[in-house]
Amino acid sequence: MPVIVWFFGDGFVQGGTNSLYYNPQTWVQRTQEHIVITVNFRSNIFGFPNAAHLTEQNLGILDMRLALEWVRDNVVGFGGDPSKIIAWGQSAGAIAIDYLSVAYPSNPIFSGMILDSGTAFYPRSVTESFDTSHSNFSSISAALGCNVSKSEIDCLRNATWQDIEAAVQNASSIVNFLPVSDERIVFANYTERFNTGFDTMANFPNISPPEYPGAYHAAELPLLFGTAAQYHGLSTEYEDDVSEKFQDLWVKFAKNTQDGLRDAGWSPYEEGKAILIGGTDTPLKLLNITDLDGAHAQHNKPDKTSSLLSIDTIVVNGNYVLVPS
Q1: What domain count does the chain have?
Q2: Are 199 and 151 within one domain?
Q3: Residue 157 is part of which domain span?
Q4: Residue 150 sits in the same domain as residue 194
Q5: Mind telling me which InterPro entries this protein's record contains (predicted)?
Q6: How far does the chain reach from its first CA to its final CA, in angstroms?
Q7: Beta strand pairing call for 320-322 and 312-317
């Protein structure tokens, strides 16, 4: 069976798989045709410490890579097909998957990506830390009685996670712990890298829709997981139809990243066109991209030797979906 591996969002700051609407149980029970694995990874200071004397800074993203390796090596024991692993993330989770696709171009593990409201092209000022002096980490260390030196890491390792979390929450000034461009896991030149890697891509500057509630950030997740009724009360028949349409398309993509969506009537991405899921009149239809505020197509010069071309991708923003070919 194809395998969909889910990575949550929440801005690399918080979150986890225990959220009510991240439960794929009803989805899997309905289809009986795929496996969904939800993954926890370290976030905030635990996942992205940006400490002066620490070799690895992007621990949360490395957690995700390790999880994918575990799935590849073990999912066959659960009836899964390791050659049909799809990495699916939302917001920060989607950004991290995109990071991984570039960090491990020759061995991404996953054969397809589903990126909900996030790519490596999200503004770096929002997704990365530029604390080159490592002052955020040092301030938390000092608050817990650890001196600012090479020993601060060892000292902090002796503190409980509860004390560290409390120190972050109670810091006298705003501290943030986000991914760092280390040019190994996270890079600073994604535009250049993607220009030589992807045949086409979609650019969507309006990550957060301007109207509320409308298609607000993460609005699609309860529909995708089949938990909308638990999340906001009883669903309408139309909501159920949209939910099942979403789910079935995701499974078809997981089964066959090349032709699954095409066989379902979802045409590959082409300039000037997009797919609307959850419109006012039908669960799925083709639109002119000019009908979508802030969206336009961007074509890049491909390097046909790049292994990035082998990763098929679904990009979701708000209530519309763009599929690069």
Answers
A1: 2
A2: no
A3: 132-175
A4: no
A5: AB_hydrolase_fold, CarbesteraseB, Type-B_Carboxylest/Lipase
A6: 24
A7: antiparallel
Question: Percentage of residues in the chain with pLDDT exceeding 70?
Answer: 74
Tokens of 202: 């979609």
Residue 56 shares a structural domain with residue 167:
no
* Residues in Cβ contact with 107 at an 8 Å cutoff, skipping those fewer than 6 apart: none
Domain boundary residue, one of 148, 175, 202? 175
* In the predicted structure, residue 297 carries a pLDDT above the cut 50: no
In this predicted model, what pLDDT tens digit does every residue of 18-59 receive, in sequence order? 877 788 888 888 889 999 999 999 999 999 999 888 889 999
Dihedral (CA of 98, 65, 153, 92) sign: positive
Catalytic residue numbers, as ranges = 91
Q: Where are the beta strands (DSSP E) in the chain?
A: 3-7, 35-39, 85-90, 112-116, 200-203, 273-277, 284-288, 296-299, 312-317, 320-322
Tens-digit pLDDT profile for residues 218-267: 677 777 777 777 766 677 788 888 888 888 888 888 888 878 877 877 76
Coil, strand or helix: which one is 46?
helix
